[in-house]
Structures are given as structure tokens and as C-alpha cells.
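Example 4.3 (complexes with small molecules)
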Amino acid sequence: MLVAERLTPLTNGTSSRGASACIFTVDVEDWFHILDLRTAPDLASWDALPSRVETNFLRMLDLLEEAGARATCFFLGWVARRFPGLVRAAAARGHELASHSYAHRLVYLMTPEEFYRDALQARHVIEDAAGLPVAGYRAPGFSLTERTPWFFEKLAEAGYLYDSSLFPARRNHGGLADAPLGPFRIKTAAGELIEFPISVIPVCGTRLCLFGGGYLRLFPLPLITHMADRVLASGRPLILYVHPREIDSAQPRLPMPPARRFRCYVKLGDTERKLRALLDRHRFVSFLAWMEHAGLTPAVTS
Ligand SMILES: [Zn+2]
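Answer. The structure with zinc ion bound is encoded below.
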């Protein structure tokens, strides 16, 4: 398996020092950044499309502020280049800046060199927008798979210190079904990284994630909070992930097959209520703040 021989688990270094165990993450992209879809517009046409990310992301920052929460904002490099003011707004409101690649391409469809260049470009654009260092990365579609054994090394080479791209369950765009559930360190020839797998819960021999995307929108809140408590009781941090478009029920719809359409657009009008309830129930922080509290702060240099 991809990571087994190179990892060191981070045992509950976390809550024992009184840190909040909940991490809020936003993948900052627009309504048309839908992966693996023939009808999705390509990079060359993005600049000409009507954007909704500014309005939606600023609304999300308001939600976080009302709750006194801090988040890690994984900016798409393209968004940071087109709307540098959004990067600065996130930083000014106390959130961590991180990278969601530049062009939103699935990792396993790139060569190692293409991946490296995209990850490096994204880091530079985001850092230039705010004048602050970027330490974290999240791959589009959590597309770290058995097909990308070079992933961590290339990421370290591109100057990143931690990652949250591993989806430790089966999934359309990636996933490693037998990967560790909790955070771990991983050594590569280019340096060491900390990996934060997305939060999943083992249920009847399968692993379920209810803490982001279509899962968060589809499942009822009582089930989500019950599962969140189970993650926290296991000593792992709870990692929530959302996109600005998920609080925008009026966004344009891209043509797609019915099953995909359901997953993409189900219950958009309900996301804000669920986020408010979760923000009210838990104290959310960024990855960097979590690491700081756990004594794990990577040495950020830029
Ligand atoms: Zn994305």
C-alpha cells in the first residue's frame, strides 16, 4: 500500500494538550469547477464565465466570523490569481491560507512533473496575493491514489509541509480504502510531510464520510453529529470540508447525468443550516492552529 512503510502515526497528540479537535476547511473554487465531467468548461474559458466565488466565499467568511471559528482556506491558484482580494480577506479575518492546486486537475491524470509545476505555481500565486507563507495542500477530488506513488515526494519538493488529500475510503476520484484513519508523518526523499486523512467512520466493514460535499448535504444532521462524536471519541481530529458553492442554491447547473446531478446539487439550500449547527456545537480551528496546539507546527518558511 502506498504509504504503509513510510509513515509514523501521530497518536492523540492533539486533545491531550487541550487543543480543539475540529478543523474547518474550505476548498475555495467556483461553481464550474466540477471534476471529471465532459460538459465542465476548461481552464481557457474560466476567465470569461460569470463568477460566484467572491460572493459565496465572503458569505462563508461571515458565517465563520459569527461563530468565532477559524478555517484553513485551500485556494485554487486560479481563484487566487483572479481574485487576490479574497486571499487577503481570508488572511485579514484570521484564517489560514493553503493550496488546492492551480488548475484543478486530478492528480492521477498528471505526470509527476506536471503535478509539481501546478502545485508550485499555486503556492506562489497564493503567497504573492497575501504576502504570507502557504504550508498546506489539498488535491482536487482527493485524487491521491495507488496510481500516484510519487505524490508526497513531489509535494515536499514543491515546498509544502502538510497535506489533506488522502480520502481513506473508496471514492470516485481517488481514495485509499485501507489507509490509516488518523494523521501521520511521512518521510520522502524531498523532506517530511504531515498527512491529515479526511475523517471517516468504519461502519459494518465499510468507511463512511459524512463531513463534507454531497455526504454532508444528503445525510440528516443528527446522524452527522453522532458520527462526529464518534470521530472525536476515537482521538482523531474531526475534519470538515466545504465549498463556497455549497451555500449557493441559485448557482447555474452544468449538464450532467441524473445520478451525478443528484450528488452535485442535492439539498444545497440546507447546507448553511447544517454548517451553523456544527459551528455552534464545536469550536473549529485551522490545520496550522491545530498543529500548534499539538506541538507539531511545521517550520514554515517562504
Ligand atoms: Zn476542488
